[in-house]
Amino acid sequence: MRPLILITNDDGYQSAGIAALQRVARKYGDVVVVAPRHNSSGLSHSITSKTPLRVRAVDIQDDCKVYFCTGTPADCVKLAEGHFCPRKPDLVLSGINAGSNASINELYSGTMGAVREACSDGLTAVGFSLVDYREKSDFEEILPYVETIVRQVLQQGIPAGITLNVNIPNLKHDEIKGIRICRQGASRWVDSYERRVDPHGHDYYWLSGRFEELDNGEDTDLWALRNGYISIVPGTIDSTHSDSIPLLTSRYADILN
Amino acid sequence: MRPLILITNDDGYQSAGIAALQRVARKYGDVVVVAPRHNSSGLSHSITSKTPLRVRAVDIQDDCKVYFCTGTPADCVKLAEGHFCPRKPDLVLSGINAGSNASINELYSGTMGAVREACSDGLTAVGFSLVDYREKSDFEEILPYVETIVRQVLQQGIPAGITLNVNIPNLKHDEIKGIRICRQGASRWVDSYERRVDPHGHDYYWLSGRFEELDNGEDTDLWALRNGYISIVPGTIDSTHSDSIPLLTSRYADILN
Known about the structure:
Largest interface: A-B, 87 and 86 residues
Oligomer: homodimer
Helix content of chain A: 25-40%
Strand order of the largest sheet of chain A: 3-4-2-1-5-6-7-13-8
CATH superfamily of chain A: Survival protein SurE-like phosphatase/nucleotidase
Strand content of chain A: 25-35%
Mean pLDDT of chain A: 96
Shape of chain A: globular
Structural class of chain A: alpha/beta
Number of helices of chain A: 7
Largest sheet of chain A: 9 strands, mixed
Order of helices and strands of chain A: EHEEEHEHHEHEEEEEEHEH
């Protein structure tokens, strides 16, 4: 039996990035796409519990079935597993996102929220993002690299409980220097909300903000992307900082039992 | 100068849990509350970039200023820092959430999304949750413990870049056995969306699901809560799984440069 590959994203089922990912996936397996109806960027790992979800079949072919869902990227994964995948997916792919999910952006990313959800359900999951913010990103140039990584993951697997966050620099195919396994570089958003006044005299605030790299390590995704490499960061969904356990156990000793 | 304590939550500015947290915080500092207008449970670390945010002052007193915001918990923190805090907060508190954010629930939690946001901005931040899902949770019983932890964090600090996720069992004050520093226990949601048919003949899906503990470790938050202890899990916002870097570097060697 061919592998079953579940695909989702956060840019919506009609985005160019998900179409590109579908083309790659269909070479290697049967594909089920369940993706948000609308652009759901910045939704992180949010889930919908207070309203019901709707799903609609968009294009049903033997080897590729496409649905949109009214929920978040993580909802799409949950719902696909339970109701739209004929069997347990061998691989979950999310993306290709238009825009970076490297470094701290991973926290906010709906693309990576879907990947974490799949991982939490015991599935092998990879998120792909292209560091390009134009309205019309060109995914063709980078597709051979996406294919290389998808094939590798299908053949070699991922350590259990680990996600992969793949970010691809916005370069021509020949300009990309290669692929690197990295750690997440430290960075922060210096947030300057812009305050405006509406025609009725009331304030409102637009998120703006400037991205600030805080890490010069050559082993980071930030360094890789800046230097023409594709970054792959292995991630965990267990956010425990183990080294802090003995430290806090000693520092907070007088309130612990 | 008294410490400045920023408070938010995901249950909304009118919830009983945030009122309880405010009462504790006012004993130790000047308080600014910026919290979501409506219940925002399950929003994780999502942020609002495509619509502007509104903020309204609800109650302005010398030592405690309360605002609601139309955004997510993470938005509240970002916006408060930039526009509603007179100076950099010494401490950010989120909660007290009505319901567990222990173990894997931390991923979905808007309460903890706000804490991660504050941490990513270099602030000291703690999330509090009470493992009680009733409409009217009784926060009074556990408030002395919340106060003990807030006081300890103000006095002893938290390691830089680390969040604290505090979960409190739903017990009477005297039944609580104490406080423990824990790791996040492994668990998963076995998701069974319930499919229903609307009066017009169309399907819709309700999230239901059953929580399954996968970890018997006595060092976990799951064990602590089951045995009558308050759990404090130190967390990191860097999701890199360091041990997987050499492992993948070797396993994927033929596609890397």
